[in-house]
What we know:
Layout: H1 3-25, H2 30-54, H3 70-97, H4 120-143, H5 158-180, H6 189-227, H7 230-243, H8 256-284, H9 288-294, H10 296-311
Helix pairs in contact: 1-8, 2-5, 2-8, 3-4, 3-6, 4-6, 5-9, 5-10, 6-7, 6-10, 7-8, 8-9, 9-10
Amino acid sequence: MPRTARITAVALLAWALANALVLFFGRLPAGRQLADLNLRAAEALLIIVLVRVLTRRRPANPSSQAPADHATARRETLWLIAYGGSALVGGHLLARAMGWHPFSLHLAGSVVATHEHVAAAEAIAWAVYNLIAYAIVPLWYFRRRYSTRDLNLTSVDRRGDAQLIAIVLVVEAAVQIILLRPEIFDLNGRQLVLGLPLTFVLFLAGAVLPAMVFIYCLLLPRFLRLTGSPAVTMLLGGLAYAVMHVWDAWMVFTTPRDTVLSLALLLLTYVPPGMVKATLTLRTGNAWVHVWAYHALAPHTLLDTPNIVRTFGIR
Protein backbone atom coordinates (compact mmCIF):
# COMPACT_ATOMS: atom_id res chain seq x y z
CA MET A 1 0.00 0.00 0.00
CA PRO A 2 1.41 3.46 -0.91
CA ARG A 3 2.52 5.62 1.99
CA THR A 4 -0.19 8.25 1.48
CA ALA A 5 -2.86 5.54 1.42
CA ARG A 6 -1.52 4.08 4.69
CA ILE A 7 -1.54 7.50 6.32
CA THR A 8 -5.09 8.13 5.14
CA ALA A 9 -6.23 4.74 6.46
CA VAL A 10 -4.66 5.38 9.88
CA ALA A 11 -6.20 8.87 10.06
CA LEU A 12 -9.65 7.53 9.17
CA LEU A 13 -9.31 4.77 11.76
CA ALA A 14 -8.33 7.28 14.43
CA TRP A 15 -11.26 9.48 13.46
CA ALA A 16 -13.67 6.55 13.70
CA LEU A 17 -12.23 5.61 17.09
CA ALA A 18 -12.68 9.16 18.40
CA ASN A 19 -16.31 9.08 17.22
CA ALA A 20 -16.85 5.72 18.93
CA LEU A 21 -15.36 7.02 22.19
CA VAL A 22 -17.69 10.02 22.18
CA LEU A 23 -20.70 7.78 21.59
CA PHE A 24 -19.61 5.36 24.30
CA PHE A 25 -18.56 7.82 27.00
CA GLY A 26 -20.72 10.79 26.07
CA ARG A 27 -24.07 11.80 27.39
CA LEU A 28 -27.09 12.57 25.25
CA PRO A 29 -27.31 14.21 22.78
CA ALA A 30 -23.89 12.89 21.75
CA GLY A 31 -25.18 11.90 18.32
CA ARG A 32 -26.18 15.47 17.47
CA GLN A 33 -22.84 16.81 18.67
CA LEU A 34 -20.97 14.22 16.61
CA ALA A 35 -23.02 15.08 13.55
CA ASP A 36 -22.05 18.73 13.97
CA LEU A 37 -18.36 17.92 14.43
CA ASN A 38 -18.29 15.61 11.43
CA LEU A 39 -20.07 18.23 9.33
CA ARG A 40 -17.39 20.75 10.30
CA ALA A 41 -14.70 18.20 9.46
CA ALA A 42 -16.28 17.62 6.04
CA GLU A 43 -16.27 21.37 5.43
CA ALA A 44 -12.58 21.51 6.42
CA LEU A 45 -11.77 18.71 3.97
CA LEU A 46 -13.64 20.52 1.21
CA ILE A 47 -11.58 23.64 1.89
CA ILE A 48 -8.41 21.53 1.72
CA VAL A 49 -9.54 20.24 -1.70
CA LEU A 50 -10.37 23.80 -2.76
CA VAL A 51 -6.91 25.01 -1.68
CA ARG A 52 -5.21 22.24 -3.63
CA VAL A 53 -7.24 23.07 -6.73
CA LEU A 54 -6.47 26.78 -6.45
CA THR A 55 -2.75 26.10 -5.98
CA ARG A 56 -2.45 23.32 -8.56
CA ARG A 57 -0.14 25.39 -10.79
CA ARG A 58 2.23 26.18 -7.96
CA PRO A 59 5.25 24.02 -7.08
CA ALA A 60 4.20 20.77 -5.41
CA ASN A 61 5.54 21.93 -2.05
CA PRO A 62 6.86 25.50 -1.84
CA SER A 63 6.92 25.42 1.97
CA SER A 64 10.33 25.72 3.60
CA GLN A 65 12.17 22.57 4.62
CA ALA A 66 14.61 24.32 6.96
CA PRO A 67 16.72 23.22 8.67
CA ALA A 68 18.62 21.45 5.94
CA ASP A 69 19.78 18.38 7.88
CA HIS A 70 17.72 15.73 9.63
CA ALA A 71 19.65 15.78 12.92
CA THR A 72 19.13 19.51 13.44
CA ALA A 73 15.45 19.20 12.59
CA ARG A 74 15.01 16.41 15.12
CA ARG A 75 16.86 18.31 17.86
CA GLU A 76 14.92 21.52 17.26
CA THR A 77 11.60 19.68 17.07
CA LEU A 78 12.20 18.01 20.42
CA TRP A 79 13.24 21.35 21.88
CA LEU A 80 10.08 23.00 20.59
CA ILE A 81 7.85 20.23 21.95
CA ALA A 82 9.51 20.48 25.37
CA TYR A 83 9.26 24.26 25.34
CA GLY A 84 5.63 24.20 24.20
CA GLY A 85 4.73 21.70 26.91
CA SER A 86 6.39 23.91 29.51
CA ALA A 87 4.49 26.93 28.23
CA LEU A 88 1.21 25.02 28.52
CA VAL A 89 2.02 24.00 32.09
CA GLY A 90 3.14 27.53 32.91
CA GLY A 91 -0.08 28.96 31.51
CA HIS A 92 -2.10 26.57 33.64
CA LEU A 93 -0.21 27.34 36.86
CA LEU A 94 -0.13 31.10 36.36
CA ALA A 95 -3.81 31.37 35.50
CA ARG A 96 -4.90 29.13 38.37
CA ALA A 97 -2.77 31.14 40.78
CA MET A 98 -4.75 34.22 39.71
CA GLY A 99 -8.06 32.39 40.04
CA TRP A 100 -8.59 32.29 36.25
CA HIS A 101 -9.21 29.60 33.64
CA PRO A 102 -5.98 27.91 32.48
CA PHE A 103 -4.46 29.74 29.53
CA SER A 104 -5.22 27.78 26.36
CA LEU A 105 -5.30 28.91 22.75
CA HIS A 106 -8.94 29.94 23.27
CA LEU A 107 -10.58 32.07 25.91
CA ALA A 108 -13.48 30.55 27.82
CA GLY A 109 -16.59 31.01 25.71
CA SER A 110 -14.60 31.46 22.50
CA VAL A 111 -15.85 29.78 19.28
CA VAL A 112 -17.06 26.71 21.19
CA ALA A 113 -19.81 28.30 23.27
CA THR A 114 -19.80 27.40 26.98
CA HIS A 115 -21.33 28.81 30.12
CA GLU A 116 -17.86 29.99 31.12
CA HIS A 117 -16.81 33.58 30.50
CA VAL A 118 -13.90 35.74 31.59
CA ALA A 119 -13.25 39.19 33.03
CA ALA A 120 -11.40 41.86 31.05
CA ALA A 121 -8.21 41.49 33.11
CA GLU A 122 -8.11 37.74 32.42
CA ALA A 123 -8.63 38.26 28.69
CA ILE A 124 -5.78 40.75 28.49
CA ALA A 125 -3.44 38.59 30.58
CA TRP A 126 -4.28 35.56 28.40
CA ALA A 127 -3.42 37.45 25.23
CA VAL A 128 -0.16 38.83 26.64
CA TYR A 129 0.98 35.46 28.01
CA ASN A 130 0.26 33.54 24.79
CA LEU A 131 1.85 36.21 22.60
CA ILE A 132 5.07 36.21 24.63
CA ALA A 133 5.26 32.45 25.27
CA TYR A 134 4.35 31.07 21.85
CA ALA A 135 5.25 33.89 19.45
CA ILE A 136 7.76 36.46 20.69
CA VAL A 137 10.21 34.22 22.57
CA PRO A 138 10.46 31.32 20.06
CA LEU A 139 10.49 33.69 17.07
CA TRP A 140 13.27 35.75 18.66
CA TYR A 141 15.31 32.59 19.19
CA PHE A 142 14.85 31.11 15.71
CA ARG A 143 14.98 34.39 13.79
CA ARG A 144 18.65 34.74 14.77
CA ARG A 145 19.34 31.44 12.98
CA TYR A 146 16.93 31.37 10.05
CA SER A 147 15.66 33.76 7.40
CA THR A 148 12.04 34.86 7.03
CA ARG A 149 11.79 32.51 4.05
CA ASP A 150 12.98 29.60 6.19
CA LEU A 151 10.27 30.45 8.70
CA ASN A 152 7.39 30.65 6.17
CA LEU A 153 7.05 34.39 6.80
CA THR A 154 7.31 35.72 3.25
CA SER A 155 5.27 35.31 0.08
CA VAL A 156 6.66 33.89 -3.14
CA ASP A 157 3.44 34.74 -5.01
CA ARG A 158 1.68 37.77 -3.55
CA ARG A 159 -1.07 37.90 -6.13
CA GLY A 160 -1.77 34.19 -5.81
CA ASP A 161 -1.75 34.42 -2.02
CA ALA A 162 -4.16 37.37 -2.08
CA GLN A 163 -6.58 35.52 -4.37
CA LEU A 164 -6.39 32.40 -2.20
CA ILE A 165 -7.03 34.42 0.97
CA ALA A 166 -10.06 36.14 -0.55
CA ILE A 167 -11.68 32.93 -1.82
CA VAL A 168 -11.13 30.87 1.32
CA LEU A 169 -12.20 33.74 3.58
CA VAL A 170 -15.45 34.22 1.69
CA VAL A 171 -16.20 30.49 1.77
CA GLU A 172 -15.39 30.10 5.46
CA ALA A 173 -17.29 33.23 6.50
CA ALA A 174 -20.34 32.12 4.50
CA VAL A 175 -20.29 28.69 6.15
CA GLN A 176 -19.94 30.24 9.61
CA ILE A 177 -22.83 32.64 8.99
CA ILE A 178 -25.16 30.04 7.47
CA LEU A 179 -24.51 27.21 9.92
CA LEU A 180 -23.72 29.01 13.19
CA ARG A 181 -25.75 32.21 12.80
CA PRO A 182 -23.32 34.29 14.88
CA GLU A 183 -24.66 36.77 17.43
CA ILE A 184 -22.57 39.54 15.87
CA PHE A 185 -25.60 40.59 13.83
CA ASP A 186 -27.49 41.32 17.06
CA LEU A 187 -24.97 43.93 18.23
CA ASN A 188 -25.68 47.66 17.97
CA GLY A 189 -23.52 50.16 16.11
CA ARG A 190 -21.40 51.19 19.10
CA GLN A 191 -20.75 47.59 20.06
CA LEU A 192 -19.62 46.82 16.51
CA VAL A 193 -17.40 49.91 16.20
CA LEU A 194 -15.62 49.17 19.50
CA GLY A 195 -15.98 45.41 19.68
CA LEU A 196 -14.75 44.40 16.22
CA PRO A 197 -11.26 45.98 16.43
CA LEU A 198 -10.89 44.97 20.09
CA THR A 199 -11.74 41.34 19.29
CA PHE A 200 -9.44 41.34 16.27
CA VAL A 201 -6.44 42.67 18.23
CA LEU A 202 -7.07 40.52 21.31
CA PHE A 203 -7.35 37.25 19.37
CA LEU A 204 -4.57 38.16 16.98
CA ALA A 205 -2.29 38.42 20.03
CA GLY A 206 -3.70 35.57 22.10
CA ALA A 207 -4.59 32.91 19.53
CA VAL A 208 -3.67 33.69 15.92
CA LEU A 209 -0.02 34.79 16.14
CA PRO A 210 0.86 32.17 18.80
CA ALA A 211 -0.50 29.36 16.58
CA MET A 212 1.03 30.84 13.46
CA VAL A 213 4.54 31.21 14.87
CA PHE A 214 4.79 28.14 17.06
CA ILE A 215 3.12 25.61 14.77
CA TYR A 216 3.15 26.89 11.20
CA CYS A 217 6.41 28.87 11.17
CA LEU A 218 8.50 26.64 13.44
CA LEU A 219 7.11 23.13 13.88
CA LEU A 220 5.68 22.63 10.39
CA PRO A 221 8.95 22.99 8.43
CA ARG A 222 10.65 20.63 10.87
CA PHE A 223 7.85 18.08 10.59
CA LEU A 224 8.27 18.25 6.83
CA ARG A 225 12.03 17.76 7.02
CA LEU A 226 11.70 14.80 9.41
CA THR A 227 8.89 12.99 7.58
CA GLY A 228 9.48 14.05 3.98
CA SER A 229 5.71 13.78 3.54
CA PRO A 230 3.30 16.72 3.13
CA ALA A 231 0.41 14.41 4.12
CA VAL A 232 2.03 13.41 7.41
CA THR A 233 3.07 17.01 8.01
CA MET A 234 -0.51 18.17 7.49
CA LEU A 235 -1.76 15.64 10.06
CA LEU A 236 0.95 16.56 12.56
CA GLY A 237 0.07 20.22 12.10
CA GLY A 238 -3.53 19.40 12.93
CA LEU A 239 -2.52 17.42 16.02
CA ALA A 240 -0.23 20.20 17.25
CA TYR A 241 -3.04 22.70 16.81
CA ALA A 242 -5.36 20.49 18.88
CA VAL A 243 -2.82 20.09 21.69
CA MET A 244 -2.53 23.86 22.08
CA HIS A 245 -6.24 23.90 23.05
CA VAL A 246 -5.90 21.29 25.79
CA TRP A 247 -6.88 23.75 28.55
CA ASP A 248 -10.02 25.05 26.79
CA ALA A 249 -12.77 25.77 29.31
CA TRP A 250 -14.98 22.91 28.13
CA MET A 251 -12.27 20.28 28.72
CA VAL A 252 -12.93 18.18 31.85
CA PHE A 253 -10.31 15.99 33.54
CA THR A 254 -12.04 15.13 36.84
CA THR A 255 -12.59 11.43 36.01
CA PRO A 256 -11.05 8.94 33.54
CA ARG A 257 -14.31 8.91 31.59
CA ASP A 258 -14.41 12.71 31.33
CA THR A 259 -10.74 12.77 30.34
CA VAL A 260 -11.18 10.27 27.50
CA LEU A 261 -14.32 12.04 26.28
CA SER A 262 -12.66 15.47 26.41
CA LEU A 263 -9.57 14.29 24.53
CA ALA A 264 -11.70 12.60 21.84
CA LEU A 265 -13.72 15.79 21.41
CA LEU A 266 -10.52 17.84 21.36
CA LEU A 267 -9.24 15.86 18.37
CA LEU A 268 -12.57 15.97 16.55
CA THR A 269 -12.89 19.72 17.12
CA TYR A 270 -9.42 21.01 16.32
CA VAL A 271 -7.52 18.57 14.09
CA PRO A 272 -9.52 19.41 10.92
CA PRO A 273 -9.06 23.22 11.13
CA GLY A 274 -5.43 22.66 12.11
CA MET A 275 -5.00 20.59 8.93
CA VAL A 276 -6.54 23.38 6.84
CA LYS A 277 -4.03 25.86 8.27
CA ALA A 278 -1.20 23.40 7.60
CA THR A 279 -2.38 22.88 4.01
CA LEU A 280 -2.55 26.61 3.34
CA THR A 281 1.00 27.00 4.65
CA LEU A 282 2.40 23.98 2.83
CA ARG A 283 0.85 24.96 -0.50
CA THR A 284 1.96 28.60 -0.36
CA GLY A 285 5.05 28.59 1.86
CA ASN A 286 3.49 31.59 3.60
CA ALA A 287 2.06 31.20 7.11
CA TRP A 288 0.33 34.58 6.83
CA VAL A 289 -2.12 33.13 4.32
CA HIS A 290 -3.95 31.03 6.90
CA VAL A 291 -3.99 33.96 9.34
CA TRP A 292 -6.16 36.09 7.05
CA ALA A 293 -8.01 33.34 5.20
CA TYR A 294 -8.92 30.98 8.01
CA HIS A 295 -8.27 32.30 11.50
CA ALA A 296 -8.13 35.98 12.45
CA LEU A 297 -11.27 37.20 10.66
CA ALA A 298 -13.27 33.99 10.36
CA PRO A 299 -13.89 32.47 12.77
CA HIS A 300 -12.50 34.63 15.60
CA THR A 301 -13.57 38.19 14.79
CA LEU A 302 -16.84 36.96 13.30
CA LEU A 303 -17.81 34.62 16.15
CA ASP A 304 -16.05 36.07 19.20
CA THR A 305 -16.99 39.75 19.02
CA PRO A 306 -20.22 39.25 21.05
CA ASN A 307 -18.22 37.43 23.75
CA ILE A 308 -15.64 40.23 23.94
CA VAL A 309 -18.40 42.86 24.00
CA ARG A 310 -19.80 41.14 27.10
CA THR A 311 -16.36 40.71 28.65
CA PHE A 312 -15.50 44.40 28.37
CA GLY A 313 -19.03 45.64 29.12
CA ILE A 314 -19.48 47.52 25.83
CA ARG A 315 -23.03 48.84 25.55
